[in-house]
Amino acid sequence: MNFATIILLASLGTEQRISAAAGGPLTYFFTSAPISGDLGRDKKHPLVILLPMHRHKKESLSAFGEVLHRGGFAVLIADYRQQGGPYKQSWKDVETLRRWALLQNGVDEKRVYLVGASIGSSVAIDTARHNPKGIEGLILMTPGLNYLGLAVLPMLAELRPVPVLMTADYKERSALSTLRTVLKARFPALRAIIRAGIGHGSEQFDKSPSMKDQLLITLRSWAEKNCDRVKLKKMTLDEGCKK
Description:
The chain is an alpha/beta fold. It has helices spanning 3-11, 62-70, 90-102, 119-130, 153-156, 173-183, 204-207, 211-223, and strands at 16-18, 26-31, 45-51, 74-78, 107-117, 135-141, 146-147, 150-151, 164-169, 190-195.
């Protein structure tokens, strides 16, 4: 592990663990929103939960987690109980971690956003349909229809309409197109980013340098609704809120 990675992980907090007795074993990174963050509502800030790809550990999403933290969010980066699957019960791991995070000071239980990469997008959908309370948006990076036996199409009828952004490499657009067709009647706030050569899942952060900022802008646009601070003109990402 190089020095830059050590500094990055330190900013996200030390690795934390939930014991078997408390619903684990699970490990995760968590960091509260910055004190100077401008997304506060009643002194609480929105939470983003990041869900990694198959066999990828939470460290694979640390760089994006740091971007989100600087952008005003509390951030939780999850490991699954079984990192290589099966994933049919992984939503329970996410729920265990969410319950823990919502007990932390300054976290807004009414503004939770899930960002999943590859199989993580399937787990995000599964989590949102089992317990939609407080989940106000989904970002699905290279979503699939049936990754590793976790079929998402049957889940969609139970999914509460929230803003959704999907991203995919052009060569993997088929599943995304199917999901758009199924979702568009019930999900008016549905967007997609499809580009050639941006890779699969969280690879998009490395192959498309603007992806982190685009997702941050999207999440901020969702979270800014009804926050406390009002500014007539927003000069930077770190200023102002919509009313």
